[in-house]
Amino acid sequence: MDARPTCAIIFNGQSLTGAAGAPLIDFLTAHGVELPHVCYHPALGPIETCDVCWVKMDGRLVRGCTLRTAEGQIISSAAEEAVKARHEGMDRLLAKHELYCTVCEHNTGDCTLHNTMADMQIPVQRYAFQRKPYPKDESNPFYTYDPAQCILCGRCVEACQNVEVNETLSIDFTMRHPRVLWDGGEKIAGSSCVSCGHCVTVCPCNALLERTMQPNAGPFTAMPEPLKRPLIDLVKALENTTGAMPVTGLSVMDTKLRQPEIKRTKTVCTYCGVGCSFEMWTRDRQILKVQPMVEGPVNGISTCIKGKFSWDFVNSPKRLTTPLIRRDGKFHEASWDEALDLVARRLLEIRDSFGGRSIGFIGSSKASNEEAYLTQKIARLIFGTNSVDNSSRYCQNPATMGLFRTVGHGGDSGSVEDLQKAELIIIVGSNLSENHPVIASKIKASRKHHGQKLIVADPRRHEMAERADIHLRPKGGTDLVWASALSRYMFDHGYADTDFLAKHVNQVDEYRRSLEPFTLDFAEQVTEIPRQQLIDTAEMIGRAKSVCLLWAMGITQHSHGSDTSTALSNLLLVTGNYGRPGTGGYPMRGHNNVQGASDFGCLKNMYPGYEKVTERAIRTKWAKAWGVAPEQLSDEIGSDNFLMVEHAKTGQVKAMYVIGEETVFSDADTTNVNEGFTKLEFMVVQDIFLSRTAEYADVVLPGCPSVEKEGTFVNTERRIQRFYEVMPPLGGSRPDWRILTDLAARMGHDWGYAHPSEIMSEVAGIAEIFRGVSYERLEGWKSLLWPVAPDGTDTPLLYTDGFHTPDGKAVLYPLAWHAPDEEPDTEYDLLLDNGRMLEQFQSTNQTGRTTGIWRIAPNWFVEISPELAAERGISEGCWVRLASRRGHIEVPVVITERVKGHSLFIPIHQGKPGINELTGEHHDPDVNTPAYKETAVRMELIPRPGIGHPLPRENFRYGHRTEIAHVPVDAKWTQPDYVAPPARAPHPERF
Amino acid sequence: MAPRINFDVKPTKIGPNAHEELERLLQTLHQHGVLRLANDVVAANVPLAMVLVKALSKPGTVDAIENLSILLMALSRITPPRFYKLVFALRDAVDGLCANTGEEEDGEAPGISGAYRMLHDEELWHALKPLITGLKIFAERLGEEAERPVSAFTGKKVAEG
Lengths: 991, 161
Known about the structure:
The complex is a heterodimer.
Chain A: E1 6-11, E2 14-19, H1 24-30, E3 54-57, E4 60-63, E5 74-76, H2 80-96, H3 112-120, E6 143-145, H4 155-162, E7 169-171, E8 180-182, H5 198-202, E9 208-210, H6 225-242, H7 245-258, E10 263-268, E11 277-283, E12 286-291, H8 305-309, E13 324-327, E14 330-333, H9 336-354, E15 359-362, H10 369-382, E16 388-389, H11 397-406, H12 416-421, E17 424-428, H13 432-435, H14 437-450, E18 453-457, H15 463-467, E19 470-472, H16 479-492, H17 498-504, E20 505-506, H18 508-514, H19 520-527, H20 531-543, E21 547-551, H21 553-556, H22 561-574, E22 584-587, H23 594-599, E23 606-607, E24 611-612, H24 616-626, H25 641-650, E25 655-659, H26 663-666, H27 670-679, E26 682-687, E27 699-702, E28 711-714, E29 719-723, H28 736-746, H29 756-764, E30 783-785, E31 810-811, E32 830-835, H30 851-856, E33 862-864, H31 866-872, E34 879-883, E35 888-895, E36 903-907, E37 923-924, E38 929-930, E39 936-941, H32 969-973
Parallel strand pairs in A: 1-5, 15-16, 15-25, 17-18, 17-21, 18-19, 20-31, 21-22, 25-26, 26-27, 32-36, 33-35
Antiparallel strand pairs in A: 1-2, 3-4, 3-5, 6-9, 7-8, 10-11, 11-12, 13-14, 13-27, 23-24, 28-29, 29-30, 32-39, 34-35, 34-39, 37-38
Helix pairs in contact in A: 3-7, 9-28, 10-28, 10-29, 11-22, 16-19, 16-20, 16-22, 25-27
Chain B: H1 18-31, H2 34-43, H3 45-56, H4 59-76, H5 80-99, H6 111-119, H7 122-143, H8 149-154
């Protein structure tokens, strides 16, 4: 039952009852009452710039957006003075914005300005439109800004400053002709704008507009300017006689005209583990825009550059639409029957000849939960092997192992809401603002407006490090030491939560004894973090009432990533930071469904729901559900990605089935992978493009991206969300779940799934943590965080009633320090760090199809520190050869303080064959995750002309943010020529 | 010598046939967005009609339509030669009015002797007589009881509801 307080207000003589303390506009909207407004947006709050929402309360005029409901309020919007004031406000807006709605791309039904103007039935514009003396800014590849159309409402500024918190946009109301500014200047390119699209999403008119909407979003919008302009002028001339109403009538009809051809479909982003959901607006196959909504449970109105703008891959001419079969050294197009028959026959032959273990399956961390489930079901049920894995092997398994050892569930402890509530956030080895931008924004907002503290531990000085209260720059691969030293400090200085430890944690004494070597002196010596900084960090953590700790591949992709992940979880346990709001451990999952691919069983040792293949009772349960004898399911832990490749080389693995993974590019030591795949007898790749991995395949099956099918994903919070079919599959491509279903049928297992919901229903009937999951409970914007009880109750915050261990107690897991397997030496004297860029995703198979991305970040490069550049006499743009013990690559140099000393950083996305030409086979022995981040290299200058700035100067990394608290509406009000409505404005075009 | 053979020349096609013309028209309509618009209009016919009806139902719009109708009704009862005379007489009168700015010579009032002279101006009297006749009929018509325009126009009364 909803326990929130309610109240009754009188609005225009009508009694309305609802939530107390609610914004008046939202309250009225919920009652079906519209109070005209333009600058107010539920995600932004009152900005108070548009002067269109005036009401009368207590005998005076008030901006309605500023009111929150309270018992007994008597409010009137019908009072003559309020009506006059609202009309004056709208007239002033129209002095700044030329109405040509019928030929405007934005008149698609959600143009706030048009709709409000139409609702208000403005008979005639009091003030003539006056064009601002600025040209339209077309310098960004994804959106445009037209100052002449800008009404100066400040929504974009508020979104940039306080939702995205990139702090690029501002408005200077003291200018003669105020406008929106980027980094205080008049051009988007070269500013700190990260093209996240927040400003475009909230713009109430067409001042900020997606390029994908231009020019043909409406039936009349694509006409050439020499025709459009005279037509607008003609209508404006007629309007002098007819008034605005007939023209508004036309534009309202135009809005209606557009509705049948525009489809709005909820989908979930596929670019990282945040799990942003949004509406995708399409006209046939044309993606008009991505429109995030307030209802999005994770992101609200937020997106990043990729989620908002990088969907050109969907209609890429390079999309696979026909199955391909290798014959006579070439790929030949084939029918689905031919291809699937061949796959079924060859895989069964290999199984019958060499056993199921000779076949390896790599499920996709980009595909749906249902598809992950089918992948492992085929492997386990039809082939009797547990050799099924996903790309979490390359990134997330160490983090999951750390959580398994200490608290029990292999997922984030809480939700993004907990991250916002925490008093202190610690980010370790995660470039959050580039890799999980929307979660970074939530944290930046909490920090900016609620004083949340931030500690960052990272060798690289990225944006979150710049914003941190404390930035620890440990030597690469030494994080276990400082984390353990801080745990010891907590015990030694009374910050350990002894009550919590006594009640909820096992092995406390044993663990404390294991901390003996981890003194501050030892930590300083190993990590190179100054002792005082370690003390300051410990004190901040010890004093904080609630701490969330986030980590990512800066921790996991090491030779002892599982141990370091364990050490971080240990630190949280010692300080009692589990099981309460605003606490917990949060491994940041990288791919959109890397969590779900593991949750739904693409793991060598777990059925869906993390149920162990080695436990007889569990195996019996799954066998019964699948209608086979328990003996038909293997009790032997299978091979993971790493071992499959190794075994392909040695001939133990004869065939592989890879779904939507670019293993050749993403696995460490490319040469080794190439060798393994070349030796396979039979290989199937299911993908949307002919990837580098597919080039090795005997059969290539064209799958579908998420927008062409239905399904569910699990994000980093453990949140399960539905996505819907935005458009039908391209050409002959098929949804992956359908391909797998058809293939299974050809191998004697006709499961007959007609819709992914039937697959989910099957999982929910077997896996304990998904008992209450159903498509009905996930409809629309609804979501569930596992574990989900049979009645549909989900678990946003874990461990509130004990830990996920046999006795319900957490475990403090003793650890010892081991040096990284590979470190710089005299021959390979530099440490090469690597990671993602904001603009790209993985191997660029998807983002690389968006030309605008290449405009912002056209080149591969290596970042080196100014001191190293000076030491080696290297200047920006020079070419260098980076050589490791495995191979070498050639890249130009970017000189930046983001890296320090002899540490280098290189993006993982570009190049042929890419970064993994350099990385090695050394790995975390607990989970077989390659130690990508432990790559020692030497650097040689190549005598070749440089390329200037490998990152063009228009890239956001060169920008200078202009932080402001909110839209400076006070500055507007204090201008001498501003008068409050309903008085007439002497210069309506200015304000 | 080779025997004579005939050859039936197949006429070369000149210009498109009807199907090709139609195909081209379809393509042109598609390229210029006309088909898209037609689709939109048909698909959105209900909401479009609702907007139209809403706009047409406003009292001012209804009055405007009725008044336009009355004008059309009146126009339908005037023969073109008479209407021609009327319209062009009006045009010349407007020209005359505009030419007389009131600031030219002789702007003073005529006085009693001047008015007396005007009463004996035969030419002026002949010019004014049709206007006075028209004015009389106009006043009589204004004095008639107002009823439904269509009843007055057709002579057929409509039952009161």
